[in-house]
Amino acid sequence: MTQPLDVFSAGMTVFGGPGRYVQGQGVLDCTGAFAAQLGCSAVLLADAVILPLIGARIAASCAAAGVSLEVLPFAGKLLPGTAAELDATLGAHRPQVVIAAGGGRAIDAGKALADRRGLALITLPTVASNDAPTSKNYVLYDEAGHLAEVRHLRRSPDFVVVDTALLATAPRAMFAAGLGDALSKKAEAEACAMGQGTTMFLARPPRLASVIAAECQAVLLEHGVAALAAAGTGQPTLAFEAAVEAMILMAGLGFESGGLSVPHALTRGVPLLPGGAIAPHGFQVAWGLVVHHRLLDQPLPAELSSLYTAAGLPRTLAALIGQTVTPAQIRAVAEASLPVRHMLNFPRPLDLPQLIAAIEAVEAENHEGARCAG
């Protein structure tokens, strides 16, 4: 596997994205036709839980398009050795396309296999909990569930297939996590543009990325509450369609070409706490956005605060992990997060005392607000 980022530098601006993004009710049944544009054979790597719901439909669409199909259920951990294990399981089969279907980890497993074998890639999310489907990066973890490494594909996915009828059946809590992840993108892109950091391409962000990130937030502020009402019903509405586009396409383009900052850097420290590793990524990011605003000496904007309340997003570290946090735990989170390069994507250099103070202030301010409200 190669890491192609070395060809770029902080002296360049780079914009990247998937070859095609296709969204709509029932587009799952077009997967075979999309795969046929990339090759004549494919492997479906799908979350084992979701496979019974989508496997037959994808197989039928591939057969209709003249694409042969192998199926690899994915139910394991996404470890540094996962790609080699999947490669060995696939054995002598030589497909030209990977169809990665499921949540973030199943899609990342498909990316890892596509990277190892140099194959074309179709991502097919079954939940709107994150923006992984559009991006070229994938995350590997250790046995304890801590982030071990972020790797990068040679290019972005060839197709992103977003079936909103399928996504509307996923649990509301997963949709809320997607909101939490996407709502950070505007602030993070702005911070990267104002600072001296770089994007996922190790380059400076183009202006377009900030425009996309800003529109992502605007769409979610307008349609987020109504979209939440549709989540889990199996009946996508216009608001749901708009929010999904923001949470997967706009958020994905916004973070990858616009840059990440404090909210995503803090997710490196959260898993060190009891219960932190199982907290949804989007909830971790939502808490990190509150800290980000505190570092800017800004309150969380009122319209964002209202959406936090509607979606049940955490404003404190204690709420995120479900228990009181100690000063030592706050320090541990800050120490693990500060070295992450996303911390450079900020209008000013940040140090450990500043980060600890901001986290402590967020805990105190939001706890006091909750007490007074009660």
Task: Write structural notes for this entry.
- The protein has 374 residues and is an alpha/beta fold.
- It folds into two domains: 4-167, Rossmann fold; 172-373, Dehydroquinate synthase-like - alpha domain (Dehydroquinate synthase-like, alpha domain, Up-down Bundle).
- The chain has helices at residues 31-36, 51-64, 82-90, 104-117, 164-167, 172-182, 185-194, 207-230, 238-258, 262-265, 281-295, 302-311, 317-321, 327-337, 352-373, and strands at residues 20-24, 41-47, 68-74, 97-102, 120-125, 137-141, 147-152, 159-163.
- Strands 1-8-5-4-2-3 form a six-stranded parallel sheet, sandwiched between helices. Strands 6-7 form a two-stranded antiparallel sheet.
- The model is unreliable at 1-6 and 368-374 (pLDDT under 50).
Short description:
The chain has helices spanning 31-36, 51-64, 82-90, 104-117, 164-167, 172-182, 185-194, 207-230, 238-258, 262-265, 281-295, 302-311, 317-321, 327-337, 352-373, and strands at residues 20-24, 41-47, 68-74, 97-102, 120-125, 137-141, 147-152, 159-163. The chain is an alpha/beta fold and 374 residues long.
The CATH topology name of the largest domain reads Dehydroquinate synthase-like, alpha domain
Give, in order, the helices and strands. Answer: EHEHEHEHEEEEHHHHHHHHHHH
State the secondary-structure class. alpha/beta
What's the CATH architecture of the largest domain? Up-down Bundle
CATH superfamily of the largest domain: Dehydroquinate synthase-like - alpha domain
- Give a quick account of the main beta sheet: strands, pairing sense, barrel closure: 6 strands, parallel
Computed CA radius of gyration, to the nearest angstrom:
20 Å
Question: What is the spatial order of strands in the main beta sheet?
Answer: 1-8-5-4-2-3
Helical percent range? Answer: 40-55%
CATH class of the largest domain: Mainly Alpha
Whole-Å distance between the termini?
55 Å
How large a portion of the residues is in β-strands, by DSSP E? 5-15%
What gross morphology would you assign?
A: globular
Poorly predicted regions: 1-6, 368-374
Whole-number mean pLDDT: 93
